[in-house]
């Protein structure tokens, strides 16, 4: 059975849990990093699995893997779910493009607002910085809006793919964090479309930002 190590409130852990549900693969979620003293990420037992001391970590029959998007690709590929992660180079590249966009562009855009307004983290209390980062976040959501206007369905095309998992969770976060947002009709329709999936309701639109 798969083990997914990491607190279930983490957006990156939730990516993996959602995909496991989509795959119908039994798994155990071991909530390292949840504040329990016995599951601190600097514990040598965890550090031996991931020297970065970050979640999630996947254990699959002795195979250990970290980095959430790499875990997504591995799980879909090893379970031969070509509907989620195509084999054809151009179709796969399109899915990878949006996964990487979420990681390299969209993620950094929402970090300040999330830490300021949800986590209330020290050092994230500058109103001007918050406004700047929120505007940048909205700019990237307009990029997604344009893409979804074109597909009228999911991020990489007409059908649900691996790319919709990280992006779907980021869309949920955008709707959850109390910033001023533009009205993006295609993004709103996409959010509702994802909400028809049980995995998204369990691990995405589940009350956790």
UniProtKB/TrEMBL annotation:
Q: Check the record and name the SUPFAM superfamilies matching this protein.
A: GST C-terminal domain-like, Thioredoxin-like
- The source organism is Pandoraea captiosa
* Signal sequence extent: none
User: Is Cell inner membrane given among the entry's keywords?
Assistant: no
Identify a single GO molecular function assigned to this protein. transferase activity
Q: Check the record and name the Gene3D superfamilies matching this protein.
A: 1.20.1050.10, Glutaredoxin (3.40.30.10)
Give the family this protein belongs to, as stated in its UniProt record: Belongs to the GST superfamily.
Under Pfam families, the record lists:
GST_N_2
Source organism superkingdom: Bacteria
Q: What is this protein called?
A: Glutathione S-transferase
Give the record's keywords alphabetically: Transferase
Q: Where is the GST C-terminal domain?
A: 88-209
PANTHER family assigned: DISULFIDE-BOND OXIDOREDUCTASE YFCG, GLUTATHIONE S-TRANSFERASE-RELATED
Q: Which CDD domains match?
A: GST_C_2 (cd03180), GST_N_2 (cd03047)
- Looking at the keywords, is Transferase present? yes
Q: What are the residue boundaries of the GST N-terminal domain, all occurrences included?
A: 1-83
